Amino acid sequence: MTPAALTSPDQHLQTAHPSARSRAKRLIDVLGAIAGLAITAVVAVPVAIAIYLDNPGPIFFGQERCGLKGRPFRIWKFRSMVANADDLKHLVQNEAKGLVFKNQNDPRVTRVGRFLRRTSLDELPQFWNVLMGDMSLVGTRPPTVDEVMRYDGYHWQRLDVKPGITGEWQVNGRSSVKDFEDIVQMDLDYQRKWSVTYDLKLLFKTFQVVLKKDGAY
Question: 175-188: b or e for each residue (b if 16 or more CB lie within 10 Å)?
């Protein structure tokens, strides 16, 4: 059972981190999401054609994740894996430690998918999640439902803020961060350091990391 089953939407905001109630942060999210969706619209057709020609199937990948206070939402990405990737997950070795799944040479990732991941183009549809209010431009790594169901103790504090397209983990290693406890510490550090100015600082660092393709696979 997620925290969402225990509290009302109003209680979520009352007990959530101040960032979840910040009007300035929300304004930045909306403006950023609109700009991001404009970019997404420009690249959507060539990306869609490349995905389909490489591996016929859906262009978008949707997966249920847990957001603020554990409320479930469907995250959207351009599909970077084979169409039946979830059915093949048990065949792939998890190279990460703890409640997170990572494999640097995951065979389920397509050729086009690897390019999309290296350039972070696969994440562009998440601007829709930001516009809808399920995510923020900056926040914590959005966990899967099965990860959250195995949370223990202070892990739940990660859900006191909205998940973000980027965050501490994005500018401090991205996929190369393979220990779940390290991710948790980064997320909690973000909550302690948070301010609108700090969000803008992380966004600027994210642009630098994406351009350099650091830690992406």
Answer: bebbebebbbebbb
